Inverse folding.
């Protein structure tokens, strides 16, 4: 069985109290309108900052601010297993995604395929 | 006068003592060989994680780890002026790039054009 993965998103995470400030800034900085959806009120979606890379601003309960990246995969469990074998640590699950830390402590997530055309064109295949 | 800018890079910043660990992990995680150059020993260049987005692992003297993003521009000074007018704060300069914080505190940089073909195709024009 093979699976595939690809860097798919950059997310600016800020305390919830600073969410609107961060959304306003990054929307103007990148020239992308911010979209909110009722299902995920903690996010603002700025679309693709450059083709194939989505950009989001997330209001969190954590300390912040920080930036994290999402890796999309057609097999989230296989990708998490591959990355933990490389030294990452799973630290949580939320909806369909898995939150990990790299061996130094950097937080990132593995998510389902988000940008299908870029995934099909550019994902890396893992044996 | 107009200028242009575009999201061009994602950088994982780690304490210098963890640099090799982070390079090994992210090179394997993304399936990209890490290249070092004598001029910039604090960086490892993993090429384009997906077309148009360069990925680097930086050993810093800061606390870490963190991820930061680079915005490339054909006029660094004009882009810094635009972003500071939006509420960012300049916090440093290093070689040809400028280090800023967004209004919430997220660190990012404005750099010269790094990926010319993607810049030409996808940069946003600011009046």
């Amino acid at each position: 069985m093979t699976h595939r993965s690809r860097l798919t998103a950059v997310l600016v995470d800020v305390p919830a109290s600073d969410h609107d400030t961060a959304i306003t800034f990054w929307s103007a900085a990148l020239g992308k309108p911010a979209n909110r959806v009722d299902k995920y009120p903690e996010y603002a979606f700025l679309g693709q900052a450059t083709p194939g890379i989505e950009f989001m601003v997330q209001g969190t309960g954590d300390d912040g601010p920080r930036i994290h990246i999402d890796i999309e995969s057609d097999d989230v469990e296989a990708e998490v297993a591959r990355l933990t074998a490389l030294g990452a640590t799973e630290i949580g699950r939320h909806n369909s995604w898995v939150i990990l830390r790299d061996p130094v402590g950097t937080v990132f997530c593995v998510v389902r395929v988000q940008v299908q055309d870029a995934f099909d064109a550019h994902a890396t295949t893992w044996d």
About this structure: The two ends of chain B are 7 Å apart (CA to CA). The beta strands of chain B are 3-15, 43-50, 53-60, 66-73, 89-94, 97-101, 107-112, 124-126.
